[in-house]
Amino acid sequence: MYKIIGAIGLVLSLSFTSGCAVVMASKQPTKKNTAMIQQGVSRSLVIAEFGAPVTSEFKNGKRYEIYTFMQGYSTASKIGRAFWHGAADVATAGLWELIGTPAETVFNGQKMSYEFIFDENDLLESHKLLTLKTDKKLAATE
User: Fold this and answer.
1) pLDDT higher at 47 or 9
2) DSSP class of residue 31?
3) Averaged pLDDT of the chain
4) What is the spatial distance between Cα 40 and Cα 21, in angstroms, rounded to a whole number?
5) Sign of the C-alpha dihedral computed for residues 91, 94, 98 and 101 taken in this order
6) What beta strand segments (E) does the chain contain?
7) Taking a C-beta distance cutoff of 8 angstroms, is the pair 69, 32 a contact?
8) pTM score of the predicted model
9) C-alpha dihedral over 47, 50, 54, 59, to 10 degrees?
10) Which residues contact 80 (CB under 8 A, 6 or more apart)?
11) Can the keyword Signal be found in this entry's annotation (predicted)?
12) Which of 18, 22, 31, 26 minimizes the C-alpha distance to 78?
């Protein structure tokens, strides 16, 4: 009898506690709107979306800035991942945390950097996506 009550108590307590992977999945960085990067967009909108620039300097009357951020996940993706981790935690009596927590540590977004050139009116004139590829070659695309 005590074993049954203990087992039910264990299952209920695991059901109502969220594991580390669940919390980590829900707190992943949000997805930035890179589609808004178009010629003529104001510098204020760029800062609002990506945060403060890493570097900023003036050359020949133009502002050159580099923005670095973690490209995260959509809200639906984060909710789905958190739900999956929660269900896996309950189904495995918490053992899923041995896999889920390291997985959420690895899949924490992709670091991205952009170089923006703004004209004298702080409107975007051109941009470059700067990424470090897996073969360690620096790639720049416009």
Assistant:
1) 47
2) P
3) 85
4) 41
5) positive
6) 55-59, 62-71, 110-118, 124-132, 138-141
7) yes
8) 0.71
9) -50
10) none
11) yes
12) 26
3-state secondary structure of 1: coil
What amino acid occupies position 45? L
The single residue listed with the structure tokens 């609002």 is 48
Query: What are the backbone dihedrals phi and psi of residue 32, each rounded to the nearest 5 degrees, phi first?
Result: -85, 145
DSSP category for residue 5: H
How many CB atoms neighbour CB 11 within 10 A? 12
Identify whether the C-beta of residue 114 lies closer than 8 Å to the C-beta of residue 66.
yes
Judge contact between 67 and 113, C-beta under 8 A: yes
| Rounded Cα gap, residues 142 and 12, in angstroms | 54
DSSP strand pairing (110-118 vs 124-132): antiparallel
Residues 6+ apart with CB under 8 A from 58: 64
Q: Which residues pair with 138 in a beta bridge?
A: 132
Q: Specify the residue for token string 């996940």.
A: 73
